[in-house]
Write a structure and sequence with these properties.
Blueprint: H1 2-13, H2 17-37, E1 41-43, E2 49-51, H3 58-73, H4 76-93, H5 96-106, H6 113-123, H7 130-145, H8 150-163, H9 174-186, H10 201-227, H11 242-267, H12 282-285, H13 287-305, H14 312-325, H15 327-345, H16 348-363, H17 367-382, H18 388-404, H19 410-423, H20 434-444, H21 450-478
Antiparallel strand pairs: 1-2
Helix pairs in contact: 2-15, 3-15, 4-9, 4-13, 4-14, 5-7, 6-7, 6-8, 6-10, 7-8, 8-10, 8-20, 8-21, 9-18, 9-19, 10-21, 11-13, 15-18, 16-18, 17-19, 18-19, 19-21
Length: 493
């Protein structure tokens, strides 16, 4: 508990990620001045000389001030996330995604309650924070109704929602966000490199299945015996959604119809999504707009049918509320954009990537060991910095080009990061939703605290880390692509 207490106190002392990027930009300015004055240089793989540009010079300061707005507006993850989240956010705001989630879990048979709870927890990442808010309390109630410990339901749901956050059988808002940062990092070495939103899709589908099975075993083998004494009176879980059932039905039908239309447009030769685009298949290049449409239209219909949206003003207000929830991300994006732009302009990104890459080459360490160390580092950092985007905004410009130097693709680095970032979510005090879990646990165990939750969830972290890392290394050994546009290896031009 002393270690956990230290982690909690240390994490709480860290500034907001936005200010970390502000500090990072300041450090880049200082380092660029120092390195440029000592005239340090390095030769890139193409034989070109790379030198640092002084950001504290007259030209450097002018560049920074004149490009500040452009850096922000053209920041790749910004537009991608905003467009995708408008659709997903509205679907959540109107209640469509929570209702769909609630309907699914209430239909689960007792015998398969645990694996489907974990699976729905993993899939709930497509519905933003609905998994935390809806699924976890509901799972506790359902387990009580089945005559089992509510803590078991909380643990299973929390494991799926949080430890399996990066996995899914669908493309979620996380995919374009990470792809944007990965692309920025890759373009430090290869300016024309493009990362597909679907780059990790197949691997994440396999991860979803694997985590569900592993989580099922851990829940029944280790967590169930430890929580079996916490049983409460059975409750009636037949919560009625009759007033909204017709809205859910028609909205689901519309969703299915949209998916069919989009599929047909990819396989019919005259379809708008058929064939190759500039970098990938056409449908891959428009994944984010498709996500927007798939969630926006059914979400809007659900809101109209259940009377939450009575006119266009109501819809506009909801979209404004969705945008307000993205306020912290927009602030983060502004400072992250300046940091990354300054990092690249100064030449420090190239110098660090090439130097680090050559150092790793000279060490002669196998790629599998390097990736394993990278995953473990992400696990450790996640204990102190909870934000996935904040961590990766720091990681991507450094590690993506560095690992490209030794033949590891940007997409593989991204997949490795997703593993490390996910598995420790259930034990880190920096998880912003940890308070929800604590509140739920306190309902059934008086005097419980962070230690209760962490001790209950630690088996998931350990088992998910081992099994997920094993799956990644096996995937590499077999040589399967990580997804459409997701290569395993990179060849320097």
């Amino acid at each position: 508990m002393k270690i956990l207490s230290l982690i909690e106190k240390s994490g709480n002392k860290l500034p907001d990620p936005s200010f970390l990027f502000m500090l990072g930009t300041f450090i880049v300015f200082i380092l660029s001045a120092i390195i440029s004055n000592i005239e340090y240089s390095i030769i890139d793989p193409s034989g070109n000389k790379v030198i640092a540009k002084n950001l504290l010079s007259s030209d450097g300061i002018w560049w920074f001030l004149s490009s500040m707005i452009e850096n922000f507006v053209l920041f790749p993850p910004l537009g991608i996330v905003l467009v995708g989240m408008f659709g997903i956010g509205l679907a959540e705001k109107t209640g469509f995604l929570p209702a769909l989630l609630n309907f699914a879990i209430t239909k689960i048979h007792q015998r398969i309650l645990t694996p489907l709870t974990i699976l729905l927890g993993i899939l709930s990442s497509i519905a933003l924070d609905a998994g935390y808010v809806v699924l976890i309390p509901l799972a506790a109630t359902l387990y009580i109704s089945a005559g089992r410990s509510p803590l078991l339901g909380i643990a299973a749901a929390f494991a799926g929602v949080s430890a399996g956050f990066s996995a899914n059988i669908f493309i979620t808002a996380l995919d374009p966000l990470l792809a944007g940062f990965t692309q920025i990092g890759a373009q430090i070495l290869d300016p024309n490199y493009v990362v597909a939103v679907t780059a990790n899709w197949w691997f994440m589908i396999a991860s979803t299945i694997m985590l569900t099975l592993v989580g099922w075993y851990i829940t029944e083998r280790f967590v169930a015996p430890a929580t079996k004494n916490v049983i409460t009176t059975k409750l009636d879980t037949k919560k009625s959604f009759r007033n909204e059932s017709h809205a859910l039905f028609y909205s689901t039908i519309v969703t299915i119809c949209l998916l069919i239309i989009f599929y047909l447009s990819t396989v019919i030769e005259s379809g708008p999504l058929f064939g190759s685009g500039k970098h990938f298949e056409k449908w891959i290049e428009v994944t984010v707009p498709l996500l927007f449409i798939i969630f926006f239209i059914p979400g809007l219909l659900y809101g109209v049918l259940n009377k939450k949206i009575k006119n266009s003003h109501d819809a506009a207000i909801m979209l404004g509320e969705v945008l307000s929830k993205l306020g912290p991300y927009i602030v983060l994006a502004f400072f992250a954009a300046q940091f990354i732009a300054a990092f690249n302009y100064s030449g420090l990104g190239n110098i660090l990537a090439i130097t680090g890459g050559q150092f790793l080459k000279n060490l002669g360490i196998e790629n599998s060991i390097l990736l394993s160390c990278f995953v473990l580092m992400a696990v450790f950092i996640n204990l102190f910095i909870g934000s996935s985007s904040a961590k990766y905004a720091f990681f991507a410009p450094v590690f993506v080009p560095m690992l490209m130097q030794i033949g590891i693709s940007p997409e593989l680095t991204q997949a490795s990061y997703r593993i490390g970032d996910s598995v420790s979510n259930v034990i880190t005090p920096m998880n912003p939703y940890m308070i929800i879990i604590l509140i739920e646990v306190k309902k059934y165990i008086r005097g419980s605290g962070l230690g209760t939750v962490i001790s209950m969830m630690l088996p998931y972290t350990i088992s998910f880390l081992i099994s997920w890392l094993f799956l990644l290394l096996l995937w590499i050994e077999i040589g399967w692509p990580l997804g459409p546009g997701g290569n395993l290896f990179y060849q320097l031009p």
